[in-house]
Amino acid sequence: MRDLSDLVKAYDVRGVVPDQWDESLAFAFGAAFVRVVGASAVVVGHDMRPSSPGLTRAFALGAASYGADVVEIGLCSTDQLYYASGSLDLPGAMFTASHNPAQYNGIKLCRAGAAPVGQDTGLSEIRELVESWCGEDGTVSVPAAPAGTVTGELSARETLDGYAAHLRSLVDLTDIRPLKVAVDAGNGMGGHTVPTVLAGLPLDVVPMYFELDGTFPNHEANPLDPKNLVDLQAKVREVGADIGLAFDGDADRCFVVDERGEPVSPSAITALVAEREIVRARAAGEERPTVIHNLITSWTVPQIVSDLGAVPVRTRVGHSFIKQEMARTDAVFGGEHSAHYYFRDFWRADTGMLAALHVLAALGGQERPLSELCARYDRYAASGEINSTVADQAARTEAVRAVYGGLDGVSTDELDGLTVAGDDWWFNLRASNTEPLLRLNVEAKDPARMAELRDAVLAIVRA
C-alpha cells in the first residue's frame, strides 16, 4: 500500500505531475470522493494548467464509475467552482495548485453548498481509501462499484455568467465614479473571470497577463510574494490608475495596490470589507453581526469591528477553521492575513473577486484616493511573515516563551503556535506543518518598536 501523505495535505491534494500523481490517481480520487461523501452527483472544474483537463476528466470518470452524475464546468476560478457547488447544491472538485509552480497540480474538494473538505471532514478517509487501492509499485487498482451501481452521466454546464451575476447582486457598483483599474491576472484564472465580472461597470480596466497560461511565463501567480507585485505596481504608476488588483493562479485571492503603487495590507482590506458587511447586516436588522479574523490579522480588525458594535471572533490560521467558526457563529464575513476573504452570502466560502468589488465600491463611492481611504484601517506597523529554518521548532519556541512569558503586563496564548502580547504590541510564532520552519509575525504601534521586537525575537529563534 502506498503512503500518500506527501500528496494529501491538510486542506487539499497537491503535488508534482506526473512524479507524485497522475490520471490513474485522479480516477481513484474521484471514486473515493463519491464513496466517502455519498454523492449522487458532483460538479468539477479546473484551472489553466496543462495537466488540468486530463486530471479533471479522469476524476470525473472515477466519480461516474461509482454512480455519480458529473457536471463539468470546464475552465473556472476556485470561487467559481464554489459558486457552482453552492447554487447547484452539489459536492465539488476544483483542479488547481493555486499559486504553486507549473509542474504542480491539485484538488480542492467541498461538500454540497461549498462546505469544506479537510483532514477532519472527510479528506483523511478519502486518502485512506485511495491508499488501499495503490500498490507499492505505483499501480492503482480501483475495485468495481457495488453490484447494481449504474454508471453516472457526464454533462457540461456554463456557470461564468451566473457566477458574475451573483457577485454583482451582492455589491452595488452602478453609481460609483469612473475608476481606472490595473489588473494583473498572472496568466491565471483572473484572466477568465475578470472580463465578465467587471463588464459594463464604470471602470477603465488595464489588463495585465490575462492570457491563460499554466506555465506562468511572466511571473509566478503568487501575489503574496512581493516580487510578483512589481509589474502591477509599475503599471499603476505608469497609467495613473486609481487602484491595482492582483489575483493568484486560481483567482480565489485578491491583493490590492493603491494609486501610489503601494501594497494595501490584507488586514486593511479585511477591516474595510468587514465595515461594509457590518453596516449592510445591521441595516437588514441584524443587531450584532459577527466577523471572523485569524490571529495573524492586525489588531485593527477587531478594533474596527468592536467600534461598529459588532462581534470579532479570533481563530486559527486556515480556511477550515475560518469556515467552521463562520458556521458556528453565523458570521457575516471572515478575513485572513493571506488575502482569503469569506462571505456568508457566498456560502461562507472565500472569494477574492467579491472582496475586490467591495473595495471598488468603497473607493468609487467617495472622492479620496485609495491611500487616504485605507489610512484609518492601518493603525499599526507590521513585520509581515518571516520564516526561520530551525532544527528544533519546539525548543526554539520554548526559548522565546522563557524570555517573554513572565514579563509584567504580558499575556500569552497557544490558540495557534505561541502568541505574546503587550499593551501596544504582539507577536506570533508558529511552526510549519510541512517544513522545519518557524513563522514569525510582529505588530506594534510604531515602526521602531516593531523592528526592535522583531529583531529581538529573531535573535532568540535563530540562536
From TrEMBL:
Its cofactor is Mg(2+). Keywords: Isomerase, Magnesium, Metal-binding, Phosphoprotein. Residues 7-131, 162-261, 269-380 form the Alpha-D-phosphohexomutase alpha/beta/alpha domain. It holds the Pfam family PGM_PMM_III. Residues 385-458 form the Alpha-D-phosphohexomutase C-terminal domain. The keyword Metal-binding applies. It comes from the Bacteria. PANTHER family: PHOSPHOMANNOMUTASE. Belongs to the phosphohexose mutase family. This is Phosphomannomutase/phosphoglucomutase. The lineage of its organism: Bacteria, Bacillati, Actinomycetota, Actinomycetes, Kitasatosporales.
